[in-house]
Protein backbone atom coordinates (compact mmCIF):
# COMPACT_ATOMS: atom_id res chain seq x y z
CA UNK A 1 0.00 0.00 0.00
CA UNK A 2 2.88 2.37 0.83
CA UNK A 3 4.43 1.92 -2.59
CA UNK A 4 1.07 2.42 -4.30
CA UNK A 5 0.66 5.83 -2.69
CA UNK A 6 4.24 6.79 -3.45
CA UNK A 7 3.90 5.71 -7.07
CA UNK A 8 0.59 7.50 -7.41
CA UNK A 9 2.10 10.73 -6.11
CA UNK A 10 4.99 10.42 -8.53
CA UNK A 11 2.78 9.64 -11.51
CA UNK A 12 0.34 12.45 -10.84
CA UNK A 13 3.09 15.01 -10.29
CA UNK A 14 4.94 13.90 -13.41
CA UNK A 15 1.79 13.84 -15.48
CA UNK A 16 0.65 17.27 -14.40
CA UNK A 17 4.03 18.91 -14.86
CA UNK A 18 4.48 17.37 -18.30
CA UNK A 19 0.91 18.18 -19.28
CA UNK A 20 1.16 21.85 -18.31
CA UNK A 21 4.54 22.38 -19.96
CA UNK A 22 3.64 20.36 -23.05
CA UNK A 23 0.48 22.36 -23.70
CA UNK A 24 2.46 25.59 -23.78
CA UNK A 25 5.42 24.49 -25.84
CA UNK A 26 4.57 21.65 -28.20
CA UNK A 27 1.94 19.13 -29.20
CA UNK A 28 2.55 15.71 -27.74
CA UNK A 29 0.89 12.44 -26.89
CA UNK A 30 2.27 12.77 -23.37
CA UNK A 31 -0.83 13.40 -21.29
CA UNK A 32 -1.70 12.51 -17.70
CA UNK A 33 -4.15 9.93 -19.02
CA UNK A 34 -1.55 8.32 -21.30
CA UNK A 35 1.03 8.21 -18.52
CA UNK A 36 -1.43 6.46 -16.18
CA UNK A 37 -2.35 4.01 -18.96
CA UNK A 38 1.30 3.20 -19.71
CA UNK A 39 2.21 2.82 -16.04
CA UNK A 40 -0.81 0.60 -15.41
CA UNK A 41 0.08 -1.63 -18.37
CA UNK A 42 3.43 -2.34 -16.71
CA UNK A 43 1.86 -2.74 -13.27
CA UNK A 44 -0.65 -5.26 -14.65
CA UNK A 45 2.16 -7.36 -16.11
CA UNK A 46 3.59 -7.73 -12.58
CA UNK A 47 0.18 -8.07 -10.92
CA UNK A 48 0.66 -4.81 -8.97
CA UNK A 49 -2.34 -2.73 -7.93
CA UNK A 50 -3.28 -0.29 -10.69
CA UNK A 51 -3.09 3.46 -10.13
CA UNK A 52 -5.93 5.94 -10.30
CA UNK A 53 -5.91 9.69 -10.70
CA UNK A 54 -6.29 11.53 -7.38
CA UNK A 55 -7.96 14.94 -7.59
CA UNK A 56 -6.05 16.36 -4.60
CA UNK A 57 -2.70 15.39 -6.12
CA UNK A 58 -3.72 16.61 -9.57
CA UNK A 59 -4.56 20.06 -8.20
CA UNK A 60 -1.32 20.09 -6.17
CA UNK A 61 0.70 19.27 -9.29
CA UNK A 62 -1.14 21.88 -11.34
CA UNK A 63 -0.47 24.48 -8.64
CA UNK A 64 3.23 23.56 -8.58
CA UNK A 65 3.42 23.87 -12.36
CA UNK A 66 1.61 27.21 -12.36
CA UNK A 67 3.92 28.49 -9.62
CA UNK A 68 7.00 27.40 -11.56
CA UNK A 69 5.73 29.16 -14.67
CA UNK A 70 4.67 32.37 -12.93
CA UNK A 71 7.94 32.68 -11.00
CA UNK A 72 10.16 31.38 -13.80
CA UNK A 73 11.91 28.53 -12.01
CA UNK A 74 12.46 24.85 -12.69
CA UNK A 75 13.57 23.39 -9.37
CA UNK A 76 12.30 21.15 -6.62
CA UNK A 77 13.04 23.69 -3.87
CA UNK A 78 12.45 27.38 -4.57
CA UNK A 79 11.31 30.50 -2.74
CA UNK A 80 11.45 28.66 0.58
CA UNK A 81 9.00 25.96 -0.55
CA UNK A 82 9.66 22.25 -0.54
CA UNK A 83 8.26 20.06 -3.32
CA UNK A 84 5.76 18.77 -0.76
CA UNK A 85 4.29 22.19 0.07
CA UNK A 86 1.79 21.85 -2.76
CA UNK A 87 0.70 18.38 -1.64
CA UNK A 88 0.37 19.53 1.97
CA UNK A 89 -1.69 22.55 0.88
CA UNK A 90 -4.32 20.13 -0.48
CA UNK A 91 -4.46 18.23 2.84
CA UNK A 92 -3.28 15.03 1.22
CA UNK A 93 -2.05 12.55 3.82
CA UNK A 94 1.08 10.68 2.77
CA UNK A 95 4.02 8.81 4.26
CA UNK A 96 6.47 9.44 1.44
CA UNK A 97 6.38 11.30 -1.85
CA UNK A 98 8.51 11.87 -4.91
CA UNK A 99 8.68 14.61 -7.50
CA UNK A 100 10.04 14.31 -11.02
CA UNK A 101 10.36 17.37 -13.22
CA UNK A 102 10.84 17.02 -16.96
CA UNK A 103 10.97 19.29 -19.97
CA UNK A 104 12.07 19.14 -23.55
CA UNK A 105 10.84 15.60 -23.99
CA UNK A 106 10.27 15.68 -27.71
CA UNK A 107 10.13 12.13 -29.07
Describe the 3D structure.
This protein is an all-alpha fold and 107 residues long. The relative contact order is 0.23. Helices cover 54% and strands 0% of the residues. It has one domain.
Which descriptors would you attach to this protein?
single chain; 107 residues; mainly alpha
Q: Distance between termini?
A: 33 Å
Topology pattern, helix = H, strand = E: HHHH
State the helicity in percent bands. 40-55%
SS elements, strand count: 0
Number of domains: 1
Q: How many helices does DSSP assign? A: 4
Any low-confidence stretches, pLDDT <50, length ≥5? Answer: 22-26
Quaternary structure classification: single chain
Mind telling me the C-alpha Rg?
14 Å
Largest sheet: none
Topology:
Layout: H1 2-25, H2 32-45, H3 55-70, H4 85-88
Summarize, please.
With 107 residues, the chain is an all-alpha fold. The protein has one domain.
Amino acid sequence: MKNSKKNLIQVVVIASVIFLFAGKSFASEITPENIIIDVNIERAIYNIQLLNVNDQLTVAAENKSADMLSRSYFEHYAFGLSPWAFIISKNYQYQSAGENLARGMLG
